[in-house]
Amino acid sequence: MAGVAGFVGRERELAFLRAALGGDTRMVLVVGDAGVGKTRFAEEGMRRAAAGGMVPAWGRCLPLAEKLPLLPVAGALGELSRLDGSGLLEAALTMVPPYVRGEVARLLPQLGPSGPGTGGRGGGWRRERLFAGIAELLGAVSRRSGLALVVEDVHWADGATLDCLTYLISAGRGGTVTVVATCRGDEAPLDRHTAAWLAHVRGGDAVEEIRLGPLSHGEVAEQITGLVGGKAPPRFADDLYARAEGNPFFTEQLVAAAQAGSVGGELRAPSGLPERLAELLVARAARCCGDGRAVLAALAVAGSG
Questions:
Q1: Please, which residues have CB within 8 angstroms of residue 126's CB and are 6 or more apart in sequence?
Q2: Sheet architecture: strand order including 55-60
């Protein structure tokens, strides 16, 4: 069974993220293909930021058949509520207008009764009030320590989450809140609302984008060394680099398959695709349109050479 390699490479991108977190940037988009290591990159970046006193709060979007509004925002607020025995969140609530507790309680029921009804006003007013309450609270947390709101897999986000993120990165609340959003660059087709949102935020002055590409040959060799617990034969590393093309997840799955099929401790690149990797590739191909599938079928017959 493959181990878990330590973080490999990405020093230039990490330096860019560190500079963004310490500056005027309101959002950092971390973009890359499936398996390229967006989550691990964000984890390493947040680990380093936390060592400098910044608080990271994580929320994740999910590929649900019916999307849950504001799921990652509620997840991040829930994480904040558990820090320091809820002391961090409670301290922030003492610094904001009284209405904020009631609004945030709509996402965190443990805070008490949620905000009042609309009083005859429409849903748009209710949403603006909720977003304002979230912004006030996050701003109060950030004034104490600096705050990074990490939203994973924003390509699966619901419309309310996208609207809330837009509000947060445009609202000046006197704190240092930076949104770090991971997004697949190969997700196709994107939801129309999500594609429009990405086009909009990419045009913003306070939005930066980090694109994660494949690892280099040397970085893949370092990853394999961590996974197998020692230096692997050069040919094995060469074979896996050629097959995985520098994709860390693909490399990890190929190493696991090689270890499972090794004879006498000798590592050889597996002849077929590991099950998890095959499932991922099939799922990605299934999202392509008819013409795209025809191209993939032709490439599969022709091979990569």
A1: 115, 118
A2: 55-60, 147-152, 177-184, 27-32, 207-211
**Residue showing tokens 């924003």:** 154
Interatomic CA distance for residues 81 and 109, integer angstroms: 11
Q: Which amino acid is at 86?
A: S
pLDDT in tens, 8-21: 999 999 999 999 99
pTM to 2 decimal places: 0.83
For 117, counting Cβ atoms within 10 Å of its Cβ (0-12 exposed, 13-18 middle, 19+ buried), the class is: exposed
From 106, 123, 126, select the one nearest 114 (Cα to Cα).
106
179 contacts 26 by C-beta, under 8 angstroms: yes
- Rounded CA separation 111/107 (Å): 9
SS (H, E, C) 13-24: HHHHHHHHHCCC
